[in-house]
Amino acid sequence: MAGEIYIVTGASGIAAATIKLLLQGGAHIFYIGKEPDQCRNLSEEIRSMELYADYIIGDLTDESTVYELVSSCIKKYGRIDGLFNVAGASGRSFGDGPLHECTLEGWQETLNINLTTQFLMCKYVLNQMLLQEPGENGGRGVILNMSSVLAFSPEAANFSAIAYATAKGAIISMTKTAAAFYAKSNIRINAIAPGLVLTRMSARASGSEKIVAFMETKQPLAGAVMDPIDVAKSAVFLLSDAACMITGETLVVDAGWSIS
Fold this sequence. Notes:
Elements: E1 5-9, H1 13-24, E2 28-33, H2 36-48, E3 54-57, H3 63-77, E4 82-85, H4 104-131, E5 141-146, H5 162-182, E6 187-194, H6 203-206, H7 209-218, H8 228-239, E7 250-253
């Protein structure tokens, strides 16, 4: 991992925790965030660790931003060894919810934010990976997409959001289909599906006494919500050479959610 070049989308939560672990492993990082303060705060935290990461501020639902991010990374480093697609958001503010209540805007915006952005990032990064020579490990690159335990283990009472679950399920299908096609080019593509993690997006759930009590038994390994670092460690594994023979898979990191 030392000396390799990674793009990570997102600047908080799981993204921030993963960025720090990758940097500590000697990697070079380009990240993106939508909120300037969030990006700058992460940059300052990284500098306080005597490390450095490049970043841009932008909205990945705009294809020109995706192009800018990928081209900026290539211009500086000449290649991309890995991509971790983390950035996403709840669609509740747009109208996501149970199917009979979900608005068309809620459906479209939620899929755009959580699915289309990952599609675009994969597309632009794959075009670069296909052009570059294999690295020392024989691979041209690795992509890790962010899914969710809600894609295959719904929880109707507290987390019923049809568009979000659909987007996260589609990410698993996209990942497996792409992995099958690009394996011959020595490009690995996997997904990771976390349970409930303490992030800004989960703040509503994390602040509810009812949901916190529910999570104590739903995620028994954590006893509540997970810390971002718990998922970041698994993400780093999938992005590293330690997972060099793994592609087309979805790693579930849910503290026992799907079996509880």
